[in-house]
Design brief:
This protein is mainly alpha-helical. The protein has helices at residues 12-30, 44-50, 56-77, and strands spanning 33-35, 38-40. A two-stranded antiparallel ribbon has the order 1-2.
């Protein structure tokens, strides 16, 4: 899902779509929640806690920084 994420232009609408998609996938992975004998979907806060506040946007930003540093280092060596 993050292939070539270092070249993505992250506008607000795209960020929201990526976060929505990530939550959809995480709900499938972690499954439903049972409270008081009633099953329901995990809330966004519960998912955020489970993944320790890491998300696709943070990963993309980190990848972009690493990519730009290596690119700069290659140009400085020449």
């Amino acid at each position: 899902m993050t292939y070539a994420s270092e070249t993505w232009v992250l506008k607000e609408a795209i960020i929201q779509k990526l976060l929505d998609f990530q939550r959809k996938i995480l709900r499938g992975i972690f499954g439903p929640t049972k409270e008081n004998q009633i099953w329901g979907v995990k809330t966004t806060k519960e998912l955020d806690k489970l993944i320790k506040h890491k998300n696709i946007i943070n990963l993309s930003s980190k990848t972009k920084l690493i990519w730009s540093r290596t690119k700069d280092a290659r140009y400085q060596n020449n």
